[in-house]
Design brief:
The termini are far apart. The chain is 65% helix and 1% strand. A hairpin with a 2-residue loop joins strand 1 and strand 2. It has a two-stranded antiparallel ribbon. It contains 16 helices and two strands. It is globular and about 65 Å long.
Length: 402
């Protein structure tokens, strides 16, 4: 009996680790050429997840909030496949069903342990931040900018590259991720886990500060804004008891000031006049506008016909250019798709609390500017969000303050 219990614990730990590492594993190759490493490992684990959870059922809402969206993309894909004689949308919809059923229906019944997964998540966040620090240390000692992950290990080398990008003469490192933005989108969830840990301890705050420093080093504009939001949200709504430690209070206030200063600098850099001033001072000459680069996709949706704006151009359609999740959902699935997606997120926000709710709120913000709403994104983010949501709605003492 003891051996069987040990095997179950090890299996549960492995499954939780796969979910925690999915955003990173999704960029890596697997033994199968048509599948990334994250999906490959999740597929291997799926029979064990199903067998281990057939008779187990927690009080989490699980797959329920996403069912309307899944039905929407399935019906739309079938109709479009008949009209256009293209089954790509049907395959993508079935793949999304498979990921959701394994992770949100079966996985959340027993295999996914929220506390254990959060422990892994914070550890991985610390390790990833250390990789960025090591990259900068190597650069300042040797003058060479080296990626952690070589291009040969990437699953999609056409879309992603580990080539180091620069701001002027200063490199932008992303640790084990292909891009600094991807690093920031992941580590900000690790920060939420450290901050929203019930009774926040000094060690948790120190971990959150350390990981926030890692995001600042990447110079990711999205990471900076999300970090500010998370820290301000925690500071205003959840830091109920002010610390009597003067040094800790000084450190906390200084951290907020530094983060706000970085965000204001990022916003100011979107104006050509300020870019010119900074360029003359630091030798930075770049015309890239991060905000415009993430919002112009909405104009593409506006150019669609009225019919296409309602029904979309087809689920599974992958445009040749980057689109954030909200405009991509609008573009591919239309009004029906975005409404059913919004329903799933609102459902979780109003039936969850603490860490899971904050992840959901930050995830909603990321949908407008990043491409996190994909199969591995659903498995990762929704697992953490839905694990803290209950079937019954309840009144939260924080809900009226949010």
């Amino acid at each position: 009996m003891k051996r069987k219990a040990v095997i179950k614990i090890r299996y549960s730990s492995l499954y939780n680790l796969i979910i925690v590492l999915l955003p990173l594993l999704g960029y890596l190759k697997s033994p199968l050429p048509f599948m990334n490493l994250g999906t490959f490992l999740l597929t291997i684990a799926s029979p064990f997840v199903i067998l281990d959870n057939l008779k187990k059922n927690r009080t989490t809402i699980g797959l329920k909030p996403l069912v309307p969206y899944l039905v929407c993309i399935t019906v739309q894909s079938i109709i479009f496949s008949i009209w256009q004689n293209d089954n790509k949308g049907v395959v993508s919809a079935l793949y999304m069903w498979f990921i959701c059923i394994i992770t949100l229906y079966f996985g959340l019944r027993k295999s996914f342990d929220l506390d254990r997964a959060r422990s892994y998540l914070e550890t991985v966040g610390i390790i990833l931040t250390c990789t960025v620090l090591i990259q900068y240390l190597i650069y300042f000692l040797t003058g060479t900018a080296r990626p952690i992950t070589p291009d040969t290990l990437l699953y999609d080398q056409e879309s992603f590259s580990t080539e180091i990008r620069y701001i002027g003469s200063i490199p932008r490192f992303g640790g084990c991720f292909p891009e600094p933005a991807h690093f920031s989108q992941y580590v900000v969830i690790c920060i939420i886990s450290a901050l929203f840990a019930g009774k926040t301890k000094s060690t948790s705050i120190k971990k959150a500060i350390f990981m926030t420093f890692g995001i600042l080093l990447t110079t990711s504009g999205m990471g900076l804004m999300l970090s500010v939001f998370v820290w301000m949200f925690w500071y205003v709504f959840y830091r109920r008891e002010k610390s009597t430690n003067k040094f800790e209070n000084i450190l906390m206030n200084a951290m907020l000031v530094i983060i706000i200063a970085f965000v204001l600098f990022f916003i100011a850099m979107q104006f050509e006049a300020f870019q010119a001033i900074v360029g003359r001072i630091f030798g930075i000459n770049s015309s890239y506008n991060a905000i415009q680069g993430r919002t112009w996709a909405y104009h593409m949706y506006q150019r669609l016909s009225a019919k296409e704006q309602i029904y979309g151009v087809g689920y599974g359609f992958i445009p040749p250019i980057f689109m954030a999740s909200v405009p991509l959902t609008l573009y591919t699935t239309g009004i029906f798709g975005i409404v059913t997606l919004a329903y799933s997120l609102i459902n979780i926000v109003f039936t969850s609390k603490g860490f899971s709710r904050e992840v959901c709120i930050v995830f909603i913000l990321m949908l407008f500017f990043t491409g996190v709403f994909n199969q591995r994104g659903v498995a990762f983010y929704y697992s953490f969000m839905a694990a803290g949501a209950t079937r019954r709605k309840y009144k939260s003492k924080y809900l009226s303050r949010i």
